[in-house]
Design goal:
Layout: E1 3-8, H1 16-29, E2 33-37, H2 40-45, E3 49-51, H3 79-91, E4 96-101, H4 103-114, E5 119-123, H5 139-160, E6 163-168, H6 175-184, E7 188-190, H7 198-210, E8 216-221, H8 227-238, E9 242-246, H9 258-277, E10 282-287, E11 290-295, H10 296-301, H11 310-317
Parallel strand pairs: 1-2, 1-4, 4-5, 5-10, 6-8, 6-9, 7-8
Antiparallel strand pairs: 2-3, 10-11
Helix pairs in contact: 1-9, 5-6, 6-11, 7-8
The site of 6-O-phosphono-beta-D-fructofuranose has 11 residues, from loops.
């Protein structure tokens, strides 16, 4: 194997740059040429790429986002787009591709693998919804961002006896909301994986208020409801003064945490090593303390990573 390529695709996250640095440098020290594809699969289709040197990835480790840029590419889901992307890779003499991205991006990688080009996927999505890895890249930094925001909100909530509803990202996975609730001591976490009863929550809020607990934080994952609707309903049902914050893309940026930097380094190096060993059609993942390879067929057909039921239970228990 002489030449590999790497791209970042889908929603960006912190730690992508650290991973790109690891891929490029691990590739170069193994004697490979490394091509960086810009703007994800769109760049592959449009032939936007550059040859990477060790200097190309200097001074990016600590930066959020992805210096290669990313995109959500509809064309990749068509047969014509997939063929163009694969033909372009072959035309560039690329013998192995590393895809850093979320579930849709890994599906794209699997499709390219089926066109005969070995692909290794690296799970990257703040949602932590990708199966066969305990953590995806970017999750830890996003959680730190959320915790910082909620800690600040708690100061002002307690000064004004207010209920804050905080909306996190997580289209179909409530990991960020529930993990942040545990880390901040938020009173509730509403997640898509578990039904919730707003009447019960309102009754609890009223009781807590009577006991002197006059402010509260309700975390809601975007897939479980809109912060504005929930706040309106609380106000309407029990008259509490509510405020909302939608954390949105703030969660995805910022300098990566130590955990994400090291995870990115480990994922990147393992992906290069796997290609060199002749693997393809696999995803690297963190399972316990180990980096483990899982077949992309399994990853892309297993649906959303299930939430550990211990997490919502723990969040509730600690509120007693
Ligand atoms: O998949 C990651 C994610 O951050 C989701 O949590 C969120 O719903 C979505 O991306 C937002 O996508 P975009 O950046 O395209 O608006």
């Amino acid at each position: 194997m002489k030449r590999i390529a790497v791209l970042t695709s889908g929603g960006d996250c912190s730690g992508m740059n650290a991973t790109l640095r690891a891929v490029v440098r691990a590739g170069l020290v193994s004697g490979l040429e490394v091509i960086g594809i810009q703007k994800g699969y769109q760049g592959l289709i449009d032939r936007l790429y550059e040859q990477m040197s060790t200097r190309s990835v200097s001074n990016i480790l600590q930066r959020g986002g992805t210096f290669l840029q990313s995109a959500r590419c509809k064309e990749m889901r068509t047969a014509a787009g997939l063929k163009l992307a694969s033909d372009n890779l072959k035309g560039m003499g690329v013998e192995g591709l590393i895809v850093i991205g979320g579930d849709g991006s890994l599906k794209g990688g699997y499709a390219i693998q089926q066109q005969g080009i070995p692909v290794i996927g690296i799970p990257a999505s703040i949602d932590n919804d990708i199966p066969f890895t305990d953590y995806s890249l970017g999750v830890d930094t996003a959680l730190n961002n959320i915790v910082h925001a909620v800690d600040n909100l708690k100061d002002t909530a307690s000064s004004h006896d207010r209920t804050f509803v905080v909306e996190t990202m997580g289209r179909s996975c409530g990991f960020l909301a529930v993990a942040a609730a545990i880390a901040t001591g938020a009173e509730y976490s509403l997640i898509p994986e578990e039904p919730y009863n707003l009447d019960q929550i309102c009754a609890d809020l009223r009781n807590r208020f009577q006991e002197g607990r006059t402010n509260s934080i309700i975390m809601v994952a975007e897939g479980a409801g809109k912060a504005a609707d929930i706040a309106d309903q609380i106000k309407h049902r029990i008259g509490f003064e509510t405020r909302i914050i939608v954390l949105g893309h703030y969660q995805r940026g910022g300098s990566p945490s130590v955990f994400d930097r090291i995870l990115g380094a480990r994922f990147g190096q393992a992906a290069v090593e796997s290609l060199l060993k002749g693997d393809g059609g696999m995803m690297v993942g963190l399972q316990g303390a180990d980096i483990v390879l899982t077949d992309l067929t399994k990853v892309t057909s297993s649906g959303i990573r299930p939430i550990n039921p211990m997490l919502p239970r723990l969040a509730n228990q600690l509120l007693a």
